[in-house]
Amino acid sequence: MRQPLADEIRPQTLDDVVGQEHLLAPGAVLRRLIEQGAEANMVFYGPSGTGKTTLANIIAKRTQKALRRLNATTASLSDVKDIMADAGTLLAPGGILLYLDEIQYFNKKQQQSLLEFMENGKLTLIASTTENPYFYVYGALLSRSTVFEFKAVPARETERAVLRALDIQRQRSPLPLDWDPAVPGYLATSCGGDVRKAINAVELLVQAARPGDGGALRLTLPDAEAVSQRSAMRYDKGGDAMYDAASALMKSLRGSDPDAALHYLARFLEAGDLITPCRRLLCSACEDIGLAYPQAIAIVKACVDTAFQLGLPEAQLPLAQAAILLATAPKSNSVVASIGAAWGDVKAGKTGDVPRHLQNVHADTTGFDNVQHYLYPHDFPRHWVDQQYLPDALAGRKYYTWGDNKTEQAARAYWEGIKGDRA
Fold this sequence. Notes:
This protein has 423 residues and is of the alpha/beta class. The chain is 47% helix and 8% strand. The strands form two sheets. Strands 2-3-4-1-5 form a five-stranded parallel sheet, with helices on both faces. Strands 6-7 form a two-stranded parallel ribbon. Helix 5 (77-84) links the parallel strand 2 (66-71) and strand 3. The chain is flat and about 95 Å long. The N and C termini lie far apart (79 Å).
């Protein structure tokens, strides 16, 4: 069976690992732990293709423990027990280093089964996950481990791995092999920080290369674009990447940066996800623009409805319009602050009875509302009369504070003219 190039040329030393400077630079804590042969339980958290498995292999070589690998997507509790049966035997006299990939797919019971062996020292665990471990890894297991976050590898670092893969392919090729100068950089950029994906693209590119007029193989930029299409973006519906992009879109709208908002919107469009950005756009219209431009919610709702009627790719136009509108609109969070304060009081039990004059007409009354001493505002000049609306326990409580935008200040001036110091 042919071994994938990405696995075949996997780095064997720390100096050959690309990226993760925050973890592996000289003097960094993780590098010191590895170089000193420390046996610590670790959780490697980060995107695919960033060196988690590679680093686990390097660590295993520096210990006297037998390396065992499991993938939680297919492994079971019996697989763990079979591995631990070797602990202390001639098969693993120094103990076992278990590399458990995709630990988020182990349920709580399966993760708990590891604790006993971690406690008695028979097992050193290195678990990897692409999802936030604080959401998916059992707390007792996390408390016995150190979490190290891996980050997407920068293009300049990925290009080192691409050039190494190209040189190896050139040495193996039965025909002369060359490539357009722009190919390495393009592959490094288009992989989105996933080194494995970049090396796989090199392998595919070489396999698809055709001899030219001189009999030599030439890797061209158009071919590189073809094998790398739609590969630069990380997106996993329901995963961290999706929520990170949604958070970035919302914060870009709030921060009044239309360029960043369009960028994150484009990520969702490329992934074919309309629901997530539409929810963020609608939420931003209420949360971040609010009363500074009340018409925004109606406009954004119309844009969202239009997007769903059109579908992709045309949906990009109304959604881009909504994103630009929200990013450039005046901002106010007075709605968020006021309902948050009001809801906070209700959650804290600060309610009280509805004032009698605001209650619905009860069986013990006859006639109209004025029997309960309710003052009908439309019967008074300028449609307002001073009366208590909050329960007695909250009388005088202020939740809403006028925003400093033109719309809310105009409303403030209007009501101050009517209510005076009660506005």
